[in-house]
């Protein structure tokens, strides 16, 4: 029994090693930090491996070409075009709460690296209710210390930067 468990552990470890090597594109473990194309490829491979589906593009089909912010390079969405639940969450953020979920206002670590890289603790996340949902669902608002605001409706796989209605 112990031998079987050890073999299984080694097999899983070897599989993980091969998977990570495939993500980085080399056997040395370099992650391509600073290479946006490598980061995008890595995110797409990781998403496919974990969900079986290709990663969603950070661009929404509703976004016209060229509508990306210079600060983040992400597509934009006007605040007025957000779902009503997202606008409610934004109002709560501006008011300072109270928030309906215990995790609202906690640090968003940006593990997916879709948002611009910043130091730990820079971003905070807030839940956007999903009508009919029984849990927190996939929709979030993420804010940065300098006032930037991002919206995701696919649990961090893609983001759009929220712009004031007059900014677009």
**CATH-defined fold name of the largest domain:** Nuclear Transport Factor 2, Chain: A
Q: Strand tally, please?
A: 6
Q: What is the general shape?
A: globular
Order of helices and strands: HHEHEEEEE
**How large is the radius of gyration?**
19 Å
Name the CATH homologous superfamily of the largest domain.
Microbial ribonucleases
Structural class assignment: alpha+beta
Integer count of domains: 2
Note poorly predicted spans: 16-66
Work out the oligomeric state of the chains in this entry. Answer: single chain
Largest sheet descriptor: 6 strands, mixed
Q: What is the top-level CATH class of the largest domain?
A: Alpha Beta
Alpha carbon gap, first and last residue: 63 Å
Portion of residues in beta strands equals: 5-15%
Provide the residue-averaged pLDDT: 72
Structure annotation, total helices:
3
Protein name: Ribonuclease domain-containing protein
Biased composition (Low complexity): 46-64
Keywords: Hydrolase, Nuclease, Signal
Pfam families: Ribonuclease
Topology, element by element:
Blueprint (H helix, E strand, L loop, with lengths): L1 H23 L11 H16 L24 E3 L5 H12 L10 E3 L14 E5 L12 E5 L4 E4 L7 E4 L5
Parallel strand pairs: 1-6
Antiparallel strand pairs: 2-3, 3-4, 4-5, 5-6
Can you tell me about this structure?
The protein is α+β, with helices and mostly antiparallel strands and 168 residues long. It folds into 2 domains: 2-51, no CATH class; 76-167, Microbial ribonucleases (Nuclear Transport Factor 2, Chain: A, Roll). It is built from 3 helices and 6 strands. Residues 46-64 have a biased composition (Low complexity). This is Ribonuclease domain-containing protein.
């Amino acid at each position: 029994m112990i031998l079987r468990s050890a073999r299984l552990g080694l097999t899983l470890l070897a599989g993980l090693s091969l998977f990570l090597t495939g993500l980085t594109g080399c056997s040395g473990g370099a992650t391509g930090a600073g290479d946006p194309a490598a980061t995008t490829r890595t995110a797409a491979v990781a998403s496919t491996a974990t969900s079986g589906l290709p990663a969603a593009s950070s661009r929404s089909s509703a976004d016209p070409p060229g509508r990306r912010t210079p600060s983040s390079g992400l597509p934009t969405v006007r605040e007025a075009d957000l779902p009503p639940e997202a606008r409610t969450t934004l109002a709560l953020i501006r008011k300072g709460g109270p928030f309906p979920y215990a995790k609202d206002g906690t640090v968003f670590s940006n593990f997916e690296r879709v948002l611009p890289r910043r130091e730990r603790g820079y971003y905070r996340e807030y839940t956007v209710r999903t009508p009919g949902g029984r849990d927190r669902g996939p929709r979030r608002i993420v804010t940065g210390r300098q006032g930037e605001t991002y919206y995701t409706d696919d649990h961090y796989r893609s983001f759009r930067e929220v712009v004031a209605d007059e900014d677009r």
